[in-house]
Design goal:
Helix 1 crosses helix 2 (46-54). The chain has helices spanning 12-19, 46-54, 68-81, 84-96, 102-114, 117-130; strands at residues 2-5, 8-10, 22-25, 30-32. The protein has a two-stranded parallel sheet with strand order 1-3. A two-stranded parallel ribbon has the order 2-4. It has 6 helices and 4 strands; from the N terminus they run ββαββααααα. The protein is globular. With 132 residues, it is mostly helical. Helix content is 54%, strand content 11%.
Length: 132
């Protein structure tokens, strides 16, 4: 299965691309987990497949010299403003999936994600009103 990625591959679109064996991206295409802003959990394998493809140590920002600390603090403030139960459930899923085979890892992601569905429903309503 080969994914063709043009523009934004976010949330479920990213998870579908991760499901594929290969990915072909246009130069201006990008991945993202914008659903985190609204408390919508990743439940289609994102917390399992993404770490298994790239690992847990991906650089999230590149900034000019001397700006790492302010950028890290700004990122921490942004993350603290997001709905926390979903953020923490996705983080826990990503860290605990390593010793599980794929079916069990995907199941534990679903279990953690469905516990956050109520928070996600509120977020989906907010998203539909304001968009990205």
């Amino acid at each position: 299965m080969i994914a063709s990625i043009s523009g934004a591959a976010v949330a479920g679109g990213m998870e579908l691309a991760l499901w594929c064996d290969l990915r072909v991206m246009e130069a201006d295409a990008y991945f993202g987990v914008f659903c985190r802003r609204f408390g919508v959990p990743l439940i289609d394998g994102g917390t399992v497949r993404l770490p298994r493809l790239i690992g847990m140590c991906l650089c999230n920002r590149v900034v000019p010299s001397g700006e790492a600390l302010p950028a890290a603090l700004a990122l921490a403030q942004q993350l603290a403003a997001f709905p926390q139960s979903t953020l923490l459930a996705d983080r826990a899923s990503a860290y605990t999936q390593w010793d599980l085979d794929l079916p069990h890892a995907l199941h534990q992601e679903w279990q953690r994600g469905k516990a956050c569905i109520a928070e996600g429903r509120v977020g989906m309503g907010n998203f539909s009103q304001i968009g990205l």
